[in-house]
Specification:
Elements lengths: L4 E4 L3 H9 L5 E3 L4 H4 L3 E4 L3 H4 L4 E6 L14 H6 L3 E5 L5
Parallel strand pairs: 1-2, 1-3, 3-4
Antiparallel strand pairs: 4-5
């Protein structure tokens, strides 16, 4: 586990999915500039906060059905929806 990892989510299924893929870290439901600064963040952030993080990793699910949006999915449902991680660095110009 990297102590710089931060997981931003309200979904326990996402936390479990990340753990199964080797990602551990502090879990918070709300992101603030102070909390994300310099961290490798997993989840979704607005760009102004993502620019303060060391990196932002999203979990993309191209097969997610419309009725599954905003729902706490199980790790198995996430896998069925094609869940993969994509890492970004956001720079403020």
């Amino acid at each position: 586990m990297r102590d710089t990892n931060l997981i931003v989510t309200r979904h326990s299924g996402l936390v479990e999915w990340l753990h199964r893929h080797g990602v551990d870290g502090e879990v918070v439901s709300q992101a603030t500039p102070e909390v994300v600064a310099g961290k490798d963040v997993y989840g979704v952030l607005p760009l102004h906060l993502a620019a303060q993080a060391a990196s932002i990793t999203t979990v993309d699910m191209p097969g997610l059905r419309p009725d599954q949006r905003g729902v706490d999915l199980t790790p198995e449902e996430m896998d069925t929806a094609g869940a993969t991680m994509t890492r970004y660095r956001v720079t403020r110009l």
